[in-house]
Design goal:
It is a single chain. This protein is mainly alpha-helical. Among the domains are: 73 residues, PX Domain, CATH 3.30.1520.10; 104 residues. It is 79% helix and 0% strand. It has ten helices and no strands. It is found in: Cytoplasm; Endomembrane system. Belongs to the sorting nexin family. This is Sorting nexin-30-like protein.
Length: 262
């Protein structure tokens, strides 16, 4: 799957390639061979493939077709050849110092997208941290409720005359405990995973913007270099016409030779 995503980025560097599903936490990784872990991971990767196959561009990619239909030997042969445009873009990303300010002035629409994505990512991160803190407090509360339930049960055994009132307290604690455990169980699927998925998509958008900047940087660098060489040549031509020594200061091109011959 890492190979698939990297090849899609290489083939479509300016598109937002969906991020891979987030890894589980450390405790779940320790039990990564359990059936529940494997089934959950399979479900997330299946959803990832569904998003790619339903995409109007990625669904037509030969890379995705190869990933889904190739035999093991054929896939291994293709997966070993990873060098390409992605490596060149990665190298260009390292030379973007000082370009972002210029780019924000020339292309404000992309800078607006970047600012919105950064703001959304920051808000989602805060929500994720708050949700994790609430989940931690719920775990502690569940432990306290269980301790309280056991204490009430012991109290009932020692004071039977209060059993009617204490039984009502115990039933209330059991009801709250069931609700708390339900909230703990649905936290991963209803809160944690969606937030992490949104965060991964904001990261994917940032990566796409950086790749676009790298391509733009390469284009403008090549254009500026071509312009510089043209100006230098024109300057040398002017010097050649005024030096009076009868020789050129630059290497003659084929067009110059044809012109002189005619």
């Amino acid at each position: 799957f890492l190979w698939l995503r990297s090849k899609l980025i290489e083939s479509f560097p300016t598109l937002v390639v969906p991020a891979l599903p987030a890894k589980h936490n450390v405790l779940e990784q320790l039990d990564r061979y359990s059936r529940s872990f494997i089934m959950a991971r399979m479900a997330m990767l299946h959803t990832y493939l569904q998003r790619l196959t339903s995409h109007p561009v990625f669904s037509c990619s030969p890379v995705l077709k190869l990933f889904l239909t190739a035999k093991s030997a054929e896939f291994m042969m293709h997966s070993k050849n990873n060098a390409g445009l992605l490596d060149r873009i990665t190298g260009s990303l390292q030379t973007l110092t000082g370009y972002n300010n210029r780019n924000s002035q020339l292309y404000p629409e992309f800078e607006n997208v970047r600012q919105y994505t950064n703001s959304l990512s920051a808000k989602l991160t805060i929500m994720h941290d708050v949700a994790a803190k609430i989940q931690k407090e719920r775990i502690e509360l569940t432990y306290d409720i269980e301790e309280g339930k056991r204490a009430v049960e012991n109290w009932i055994c020692h004071e039977p005359e209060l059993s009617y009132c204490l039984q009502g307290i115990r039933d209330a604690l059991v009801s709250v405990l069931v609700s708390q455990k339900h909230l703990l169980q649905i936290y991963g699927s209803s809160i944690e995973q969606p937030l992490e998925e949104y965060l991964s998509y904001t990261d994917a958008v940032k990566e796409a913007l950086n790749r676009r900047d790298a391509i733009q940087y390469n284009y403008e660098s090549s254009r500026d270099e071509t312009t510089r060489k043209r100006i230098e040549k024109e300057h040398l031509e002017i010097l050649d016409n005024t030096n009076g020594f009868g020789f050129k200061l630059w290497k003659a091109t084929n067009r110059d030779r044809v012109k002189n011959y005619s």
